[in-house]
Amino acid sequence: MTSRRISPAQARRIAIAASGLDGAVPGERGRTGIRTLERAIARLGLLQLDSVNVFERSHYLPLLARLGPYDRTVLDRLLHHDHGRGLGGYTEFVAHEAAVIPVDDWALWRWKREQPMRPSTEQWATEHAGLVDDVLAEFAERGPIRPSEMEHPEHQRMQGGWWNKSDAYWATAVLFRRGELVTIGRTRFERRYAAAGSVLPEDGQARIDRADAHRELVRRAARAFGIATLDDLADYYRLKIADARVAVTELVDAGELEPVEVDGWGRPAFLTVGTRVPRRIRSTALLSPFDPLVWFRPRAERMFGFAYRISIYTPAPQREHGYYVLPVLVDDELVGRVDLKSDRKAGILRVQHATIEPGSADRAGELAARLVPALAEAAGWQGLDRVEVTGPGTWAAEVAAALRAR
After folding, report:
1. In sequence order, what are the beta bridge partners of 190?
2. 268, 273, 303: which is closest to 2 by C-alpha?
3. Which end of the chain is more exposed for a tag (fewer CB within 10 A), N or C?
4. Cβ count near 190 (within 10 Å)
5. Cα dihedral across residues 292, 295, 298, 303: positive or negative
């Protein structure tokens, strides 16, 4: 049977709609209460975490892009960030990178918690087995605490930067990876842990067959991506290609995934059966570097022609587009990128660099006018008074002009 052919434009529209970004137009979005946040998280499956807050921490941003300027304290309460001491509806695990996941999904990750860690970590854990047991016992005895609050004698504050942690701290990392410590929230963005046996519901300890778990994770990745290659589907939850391939084959055989061909992709793609192809996308959004639409860089380049890398780990002289660079989505295209900084003391959202994509350069002024409401919305959400273009870039002049005309 010949696979159905999908045009690149159709593939983009399918992906954007599946990700919840269709209709993400500043000033036109609806309610942003707790149930709306829960539905948005469920649609994505997870929120990737990152500590950089030069603009805003990454887990807040996918919801801003999709829902508009929601109350961040509502999300904090939902995730037990600086609120609550017990286990709520969400926890964390390495479910892409470090990410927020629903507690209800804990059992889906048992296979990963039981597989060996990297050899150097396994060796360290073996050599420090007594310490690891002691640390677990302290959390079991004292209840939810942060690693910085440990009283173990081998937990000492050390100089030399964030990576220079005590052995007791690294024991908590091992216990987290094994699932023996569970994240029950954060305080000032530091995890609060509890012993798993004392807080997890009984069904959280269920044993799900590895193959069944992989099939469910690929099923969810396919829904979240809309249309995707095997590599894309494997990356969503960081599965091995071989495991994802088995799951994809089973889902195709079960009639849940449809193989399709996307012109120019040069590899098979898969579509959740019954997925509609939107005729049009209306959207203007600032995307986190860790937004699912762009977090797998090969997919962003294949789908949007958008070669992207985050620059926070790039030495300053080598940065081409700035430091904290956010892709700009307008309708069904990634049209540019902006480096944003929330200058909270001055009350300014600073556009430190603005770059238009080469294929969009002839529409730079028109697209800047589409971008400015999203910048203004983000500034207001951050409690900032205004937006200013304070740096260079091939789009800087047009964005500055659009701000003046607003």
Report:
1. 187
2. 268
3. N
4. 12
5. positive
Return the closest-CA partner of residue 332 out of 3, 5, 19.
19
pLDDT in tens, 274-302: 999 999 999 999 999 999 999 999 999 99
Q: CA-CA distance, 256 to 273, in Å (whole number)?
A: 5
Judge contact between 84 and 185, C-beta under 8 A. Answer: yes
* DSSP notation for 242-271: HHHHHHHHHHHHTTSEEEEEETTT-SEEEE
Distance of alpha carbon 148 from alpha carbon 157, whole angstroms: 8
Strands 47-48 and 4-6: unpaired
| Whole-angstrom distance, CA of residue 263 vs CA of residue 217 | 27
State the DSSP string of 359-377: GGGGGHHHHHHHHHHHHHH
pTM over 0.90: yes
Q: 332-359 pLDDT, tens per residue?
A: 999 999 999 999 999 999 999 999 999 9
| CA 166 to centroid of chain Cα atoms | 28
DSSP codes, 59-105: GGHHHHHHH-S--HHHHHHHHTBSS-SS--SEEEEESSSEEEEEGGG
At 290, phi and psi to the nearest 5?
-110, 25
> How many residues are given for the chain?
406
Contacts of 394 (CB under 8 A, 6+ apart): 354, 355, 356, 361, 364
- How far apart are the C-alpha atoms of 68 and 373, rounded to whole Å? 11
How far is C-alpha 235 from the geometric centre of its chain's CA atoms? 12
Copy the structure tokens of residue 382. Answer: 């951050």
